[in-house]
Amino acid sequence: MSTPAKIAMAGGFTFDMTDVDGVPEMTLIADTVRTLKSRRLRNDDILLCTYPKSGTHWTWEILNMIVAGKAEYTKHWQNSAWLEYRTEEELEELASPRIFHTHLLPRQLPESVWRLGCKIVYVWRNPKDCAVSSFCQESSQMWKDGSQDKYNFTGSWDDFLSLYQDGYIVFGSIFDYTHDWNKTAEKLTICQVQYEDMKKNCANEIRRMAEYLNRPLPEKTYVEIAEACSFSNLKHANENIKDQTYHFKWQQGSSGYFRKGKSGDWKNWFTVAQNEKFDKIYEAKLKKPFPY
User: Fold this and answer.
1) Using one digit for the tens of pLDDT, what is the confidence trace for 148-178?
2) Residue (of 261, 201, 260, 208) closest to 226 by Cα position
3) What gap in Å lies between CA 255 and CA 35, rounded to an integer?
4) Which CATH number does the domain housing residue 153 bear?
5) pLDDT band at 142 (very low <50, low <70, confident <90, very high)
6) CA 285 – CA 290 distance, rounded (Å)
7) CA separation for the pair 5, 282 (Å, rounded)
8) Annotated catalytic sites, by residue?
9) Which residues constitute the domain of residue 280?
10) Are 167 and 273 in contact (CB under 8 A)?
11) Which residues have C-beta within 8 Å of that of residue 105, sequence separation ≥ 6?
């Protein structure tokens, strides 16, 4: 019987995938995800929760600047604080307050997150833009140290979208992810941020996050952080200023994390039929019309 991970690999993904509690994960981190529930956190830990390609690098850098109280880039890439990728020993070395990022569902997170009442910032983005951005990254990346000289995904855009909207992709369905985090937000006080709102008025969203974290800053600092974390400035910093220790290495010519950083590019990719089908799935899964 085919599992979600097997369907994903048969559909064009070239890296090993394993199902963990019904969700396809990279085999590389499967054991960590399985044992994550028992991981010990600190009560001042901050979690940035996003589905892939929803502005993770952007928001993680902003949160670090809020905690630092100034528009100064972190030394390392965000992968240094990836909850499900780094070992517990590696994360223990980080100074408090630690700012983790994760793509996991609420039920996959450490139980101590809820027991300690850790601060949570949840960012979501138009799922059609997420799909396009994911396809462009996965179909343009080759691991530098990989054993296969293949891109992460070798199928067509149509192949990818079919897998994506059915949840046969790393970290599972974006619809399930959105549904579960929306339900969590109804029960707990978390900071919900929309990617498109950050594009319209980043300083305002930075202020909201700072107030949620009980770390209000001068108005000029919000503006300075927004400018430092603009797409072009943050891309330059990540590629040219930051320590590259935790930067995943790809073969020359492969795509990196930063592509366009814009909203609405999905209109250049989705056919009318694809758009209509996606909207129907969204409405069926989330019980409301597609909002974008």
Assistant:
1) 567 788 899 999 999 999 999 999 999 999 9
2) 201
3) 31
4) 3.40.50.300
5) low
6) 11
7) 22
8) 103
9) 4-286
10) no
11) 23, 172, 176, 177, 180, 181
